[in-house]
Specification:
Elements: H1 11-24, E1 29-38, E2 50-51, E3 53-66, E4 71-76, E5 82-86, H2 100-111, E6 119-125, H3 135-151, H4 157-172, H5 179-186, E7 191-196, E8 202-206, E9 211-217, H6 225-243, H7 258-263, H8 270-294, H9 298-314, H10 321-331, E10 336-342, E11 349-355, H11 359-374, E12 379-383, E13 390-392
Parallel strand pairs: 4-6
Antiparallel strand pairs: 1-3, 1-13, 2-7, 3-6, 4-5, 7-8, 9-11, 9-12, 10-11
Helix pairs in contact: 2-3, 2-4, 3-4, 3-5, 4-5, 6-8, 8-9, 10-11
This protein binds alpha-D-galactopyranose.
Length: about 400
């Protein structure tokens, strides 16, 4: 969704009620789903590994009211067009349009056996699009809650995350992992979530009170990242195939230890080895980072973030010049524990862990230095670790 920097979160539901009444002449129920940052554990979710995301205070809202027919009429305040979807149409397909996320969720809810009423829907978001903060997962989760609320359907939160991921995998055609939908559904305010993407066991880790999550948007969007993302997935799968000749028990890179990878490194082509090395060591870093947070060792946590970024840059090759520059600039600042790119990569945002009393100077100095070097005006904001999705009163 388009970024609307001037909005305050509390104004948006009220504005949505008003806009909805004007568009559809009805009273709406409003649902919100947050975007996310990932503190550590990048490109590990689709390798059955570990991740540590937190929800942010940027969200997507979906306002809904029932219709008497079996259609969804979908509008967004971020776009001008209106879309009509026939819920009874059997062979519905993605149209490479923003409404695909809405449509895909409706299709998956129906496929899961839920009976949906027709609905008028208005979508609005302030999660920047293409910035690696999961605006698409937020659209999916907000839409799913709105359609469920409108139809008297309830779905367990973990099942809901899986269903929204299926919408993206099977309907939209992006082979993403479970992280983004999971955190949007399951986040707890003030906490990051350490998630095992195989078992879906998870643990909420409190973010220390005197520490802030600072998000720096490079303003380079990751539109071209889709192909590269699917290529990385395929390279990981190839790594598993090759390694399983010597390690027959493995199902995913999650099952390979750093020692095993080192022992069998010569069995892999250089690029595949680099991809595997990132994933195997990144999984270990997430576990170490969770332990560091448990004992309040932010210096260790920051070191792991730094290593993660270097690994994403050199081994996984999903960073870019602007992300590297942003990380380098942020690390020079006073009060910074660590920084790294967050999300799929090829542009988008970095996340920094910053002592709360140092954030104002951080914003000023990083913004000025980044503009001077690139000519781009970055968006930099301090986010709380926000709560997961739900209905807005
Ligand atoms: C995107 C995907 C996630 C995850 C990250 C990389 O955000 O949606 O599933 O794979 O990239 O960690």
């Amino acid at each position: 969704m388009l970024s609307v920097m001037t909005d305050t979160v509390s104004d948006i539901p009220r504005e949505m009620h008003e806009a909805f009444r004007q568009l559809f002449g009805a009273h709406a129920r409003v649902f919100r789903a947050p975007g996310r940052v990932n503190l550590i554990g990048e490109h590990t979710d689709y390798n059955d590994g570990f991740v540590m995301p937190a929800a942010i205070d940027r969200s997507v809202w979906a306002a809904v009211s029932p219709r008497s027919d079996k259609h969804l009429v979908v509008r967004s305040t971020n776009f001008t067009d209106s879309v009509e979807i026939d819920l009874d149409k059997e062979d519905s397909r993605a149209a490479r349009h923003w409404s695909d996320y809405v449509h895909g969720v409706a299709v998956m809810l129906r496929q899961a056996g839920h009976c949906l009423r027709g609905a008028n829907l208005l979508i609005r978001g302030d999660v920047p699009i293409g910035a690696g903060l999961s605006s698409s997962a937020a659209v999916e989760v907000a839409t799913a809650l709105a359609l469920m609320g409108n139809s008297g359907v309830s779905v367990d939160r973990v099942e809901l995350a899986k269903l929204c991921r299926r919408a993206e995998n099977e309907f939209v055609g992006a082979r993403v992992g479970i992280m983004d939908q999971f955190i949007s559904c399951m986040a707890q305010a003030g906490h990051a979530l350490c998630l095992d993407c195989r078992s879906l066991q998870h643990r909420a880790l409190p973010v220390p009170r005197d520490v802030s999550l600072v998000i720096c948007n490079t303003m380079v969007t990751h539109e071209l990242a889709g192909n590269e993302y699917n290529t990385r997935r395929a390279e990981c799968e190839e790594g598993v195939r090759l390694l399983s000749r010597s390690l027959p028990g493995i199902r995913a890179l999650r099952d390979v230890t750093p020692e095993q990878l080192q022992r069998h490194a010569s069995e892999l082509p250089t690029t595949i080895l680099k991809r595997c090395r990132h994933v195997v060591l990144e999984n270990a870093r997430v576990c170490d980072a969770a332990a560091a947070l448990d004992r309040g060792d932010l210096a260790a946590f920051g070191r792991l973030m730094r290593e993660s970024h270097q690994s994403l840059r050199a081994d996984y090759e999903v960073s870019c010049a602007e992300l590297d520059l942003m990380v380098a600039l942020t690390e020079k600042q006073e009060g910074v524990y660590g920084a790294r790119m967050t999300g799929g990569g090829f542009g988008g945002c970095t996340v920094s862990l910053v002592r709360s009393d140092a954030t104002a100077e951080f914003q000023r100095a990083v913004s000025a230095a980044y503009s001077a070097k690139t000519g781009l005006e970055p968006q930099i904001w301090v986010s709380s670790a926000a709560a997961g999705a739900g209905e807005v009163e």
